[in-house]
Amino acid sequence: MKPFDYVRASDAAEAHDTAGRIIAGGTNLIDLMKHQIETPSKLVDVTRLDMHEIAPSDDGLRIGALVSNSDLAAHDTVRRDYPVLSRALLSGATGQLRNKATTGGNLMQRTRCPYFYDTAQPCNKRQPGSGCPAMAGVNRILAVLGTSDQCIATHPSDMAVAMRALDARIEVARAGGGTETLPMDDFYVLPGDDPSVETVMQPGDLITAVHLPSAPTGHQTYRKVRDRSSYAFALVSVAAVVDTDGGKITEAALAFGGLAPRPWRDTDVEQVLLGETPSDALFDKAADVLLADAKGHGGNDFKIPLVRRTLKAVLADLTGVTR
Amino acid sequence: MTEHLKMDQVQPRLLDETEQGALHAPMPRPEGPLKVTGTATYAAEWKLDGMAEGFMVRAGITKGRFKVDASSVEDMPGFLGVYTDRMVRNSAQGTAGTNPVQPGDQVQYLGQPIAVAVADTFEQARDIALALKVEYTPDDDAHVVMDDSATYEDDDDALDQGDLDAAMADAAFSVDGMWTTKPHNSAAMEPHATLAQWDGDKLTVRSSLQMLNYNKHEIADSLGIDVKNVRVLSPYVGGGFGSKLGMSPECVAAAVAAKALGRPVRVVLHRNHVFETIVLRTETRQRVRLSCDAEGKLTGIGHENWQANLPDEGMAEPVDLATHLLYGGENRRYGQHVAMLNRPASGSVRAPGEAVGMLALENAMDELAEKVGIDPIELRVKNIPDRHPENGTPFSSHGLKACLEDGAERFGWSQRQAPKARREGEWYIGMGVASAARLNLLMESRARVTLNPDGTALVQTDMTDIGTGTYAILGQIAAEMLGIPAEKVTVELGDSDLPEGPGSGGSWGAASAGSAVFLGAKGIRKKLAERLGCGADELRLQDGVATGGNNRRPLAELMDGPISEEGHLEPGQTDDDFTQSGFGAHFAEVAVNAVTGEVRVRRMLAAMAAGRILNPKTAQSQVWGGQIWGIGTALTEGIEHDPRTGHVVNNDLAEYHVPVNLDVGDLDVMFIDERDDQANPMQVKGIGELGLSGAGAAITNAIYNACGVRVRDYPATPDRIFPHLD
């Protein structure tokens, strides 16, 4: 580990330190520092700031950035109105990690691509321009959507996938002043030519909260497929909010984990479903749209048929179609 | 004095005559409270005055030469030194007793330990290790994939008995298939760690090792010093599973650095280093052929394997170990082909041979039973041989039939249905069975037993307890033999200055170290009988009182001071005259998700025949461990090597998936009552690896019974199941 300065921010102004790297739970950052994948010269600990509250907002729920994953999963309102989020949280990591990990930190966690973690290997995310050994290497857990020819890393969060389905917005206090509330697709940046850039966060910026809109109607679920029953990242996961009325699908919000560099949502998939009578054939059509541009790299080819099967099962469950 | 026994003939069943009741009792491990309260001191937890910290430097290329530039880091904070002298390529093989390959400036695999960086603090050492400038001259002839173009070392002595090809051609039913298994890591919870301390020429190594009687020689040989100057301390070992059989690379690195710096040096392997520099279980490809007549009587067995290792390791996974003795059939063919690759070295991981070999054999038996149209238990029972099917020796004891049949009854095997017949919602439910066999081994062992007049006793040996229950059972054996409560016995282990035991490995610990303790106590019994004036056969000892020849005296009256005897056991003729093996049967009930192919093990039963069970609690724990390893082997565990560099890609416990609690369903264990008179004077056989042999195959056979998908490529992750489902 590189020597670094440690500062505990006592107010927001101190947190907006453009020379510092923000640390909250540290469940990912400290590992990255030990491996010297990240080598901040200064850590700014924001855990004493007043961002621990989950509170009703004008149009839904405001989740403070420092709310732990455990507390968020167990929160009464979340369990009642946003069960997809509670389920997603509980499917991630372990009890110990969820106690420590925060809402803001979870959003900022980095990929688990094994080549990113091995500093003896090139990696365009770690060292832009050095190459991507994952493409022709061991890529079983890596992405099939939203990738570029520079990077096929996935975003590993479960929580963020549920939030994406719920149309969450991320509240960012900018270092230069002012606060923005960003939809998740505006917050996360696809790899493109420079996979080292993952979000629109700039030095000194601070995630202060996540906003959930009012509780959606219909049924919610989070389904995660993984190599073992716990403490494994998603091979694929589906967060779904679906409602039906009079035999037709009236609401559909679908987000996917394990597939892409960010929690993946494609509203075209939902458009296929809306207003239609649920059926196996319809679900296949939705999967066709989702996977139209999907591209495997050998070891992860299986994710494409696996997410189709998983999506269809989830839709069948939520719409009551007999399988 | 020494009580010596060479196991040339059957010994009386003394432990069925003694009356203390310390043995056969489910005694908890006496060191357990220390471990769960964090007060047992593991290797990395020792602290010595002036101690410096080392961090290993790994090679960044697959093959070639390297040169480190220590000047590149000497100005860094805390820098004390960078050392490359005598660095070993990887951990020593089990029972090697000599130095591992010391490749000098050669790199032979990516991740090889090439230097140790030493500093005042661990963080500084790690920073220096990562910053160290290393100049490489790569070779372009590295080979990292086990394909046709690799160089193979073949076993020219592999058995070829009868004519298997003809048997296959004439068979009423046959199976001919290719199975693959990925490499495995032992994944012991405690990483390897060493604290080395010199006092003049004398070196003390506090490390986490399984076999001090070999390890002290490996360390001395690697350092070029006299073994008399080496003392190894491993009182507590946080899991071994084979990974600590041989001395690990940081032992040498710490000793070299400590010598150069004139102060103690501690080196703890990072988990990534454990995955790279400690021997792993090779990947395998296995061809299994079975042929039988119309009734299911086997006429032929073939079991050939392909595997990988670094050159000069002198170890190959004995994939066909159990196949030689498990089933009859006159035509038999084996073959072993070891690819020489530039990848981390292969060596012993729990149940070398059976852990992977039994997957293929027992899957093939399941397939054959289906073809013949008989129950897989019936097929197995029908083919149990009367004698070893190749060398003709009789079996010392044989509990396979009882395990299969009694186990079937306890498990509810009769409820098993046809594939895909049982479904609960999204889940297919199925049952599977597999045989278990593990060759029983006995090793030369010594132990010192001391009985005090106050009715306490001391047992001393350099044997280790790697979480298996050695402390418990050695104390129980001494207590039983000496007629005192087990809590009155203190057991000292893990110090190479103590009498040489067998080390923990090969499932021989309880039988070998236990017999040495048994013999030491037997020597004491002889002396007590003399003092009491009775024959040793007449002596009865219970609760500190000796009875015999119409005399009854408390030990305190009989003894004027401590009596100390060394027990010395050697394997003998019974090993040559008989085939000795533990046997068992594994049963599994699994659920397979019809959508995703995810598999959940709902329950397992292991029926085990392993001779006398010394302590049903620790024995059960060993079998549980085997069953859980079976789950990992069948479903989740597999090292991925990069196809270009050969390095271990999933080199941590986040991506190398050992089973978690939630993966483990209800585990049931039953022991078949047995005494193996040929095995040793206690009639016990090994249990540590038997519980793994075949366990994974029961699970994959259950997968087939559940959903109709045959698994031949391990582990059976969801992507290997769902494509074959509707």
What does this structure look like?
- The complex is a heterodimer of chains A (323) and B (726).
- Chain A has 323 residues and is α+β, with helices and mostly antiparallel strands.
- Among the domains of chain A are: 5-47, Uridine Diphospho-n-acetylenolpyruvylglucosamine Reductase, domain 2, CATH 3.30.43.10; 219-319, CO dehydrogenase flavoprotein, C-terminal domain (Enolase-like, domain 1), CATH 3.30.390.50.
- Chain A is built from 13 helices and 12 strands.
- Chain A has helices at 12-15, 29-34, 69-74, 76-81, 83-90, 95-100, 103-108, 114-117, 159-165, 184-187, 267-273, 280-290, 303-319; strands spanning 5-8, 21-23, 42-45, 54-57, 60-64, 169-173, 179-183, 206-213, 219-225, 236-245, 248-257, 264-265.
- In chain A, strand 2, helix 2 (29-34) and strand 3 (42-45) form a beta-alpha-beta unit.
- Chain A starts with a strand and ends with a helix.
- The mean pLDDT of chain A is 97.
- Chain B is of the alpha+beta class.
- Chain B folds into 3 domains: 2-39 and 442-576, Aldehyde oxidase/xanthine dehydrogenase, molybdopterin binding domain (Aldehyde Oxidoreductase, domain 4, 2-Layer Sandwich); 44-140 and 186-277, Aldehyde oxidase/xanthine dehydrogenase, molybdopterin binding domain (Aldehyde Oxidoreductase, domain 4), CATH 3.30.365; 355-440 and 580-724, Aldehyde oxidase/xanthine dehydrogenase, molybdopterin binding domain (Aldehyde Oxidoreductase, domain 4).
- Helix content of chain B is 24%, strand content 25%.
- In chain B, the strands form 6 sheets. Chain B has a 7-stranded mixed sheet, with helices on both faces. In chain B, strands 8, 9, 10, 15, 16 and 17 form a 6-stranded mixed sheet that branches. Chain B has a 5-stranded mixed sheet with strand order 1-26-20-21-22.
- In chain B, strand 21 (457-460), helix 11 and strand 22 form a beta-alpha-beta unit.
- In chain B, helix 8 (354-372) crosses helix 9, helix 8 (354-372) runs parallel beside helix 16 (695-707) and helix 11 runs parallel beside helix 12.
- The longest helix of chain B has 24 residues, at 509-532.
- The A-B interface holds A 1-3, 34, 36, 112, 114-115, 117-121, 133, 136-138, 140-141, 225-232, 235, 302, 305-306, 309-310, 312-313 and B 58, 60, 77, 110, 123, 126-127, 130, 426, 595-596, 598, 600, 635-636, 640-645, 647, 649-652, 654-655, 657, 659-663, 717-719, 722-723.
- Chain A: This is Xanthine dehydrogenase family protein subunit M.
- Chain A: InterPro entries: CO_DH_flav_C, CO_DH_flav_C_dom_sf, Diverse_Substr_Oxidored, FAD-bd_PCMH, FAD-bd_PCMH-like_sf, FAD-bd_PCMH_sub1, FAD-bd_PCMH_sub2, Mopterin_DH_FAD-bd.
- Chain A: Residues 1-217 form the FAD-binding PCMH-type domain.
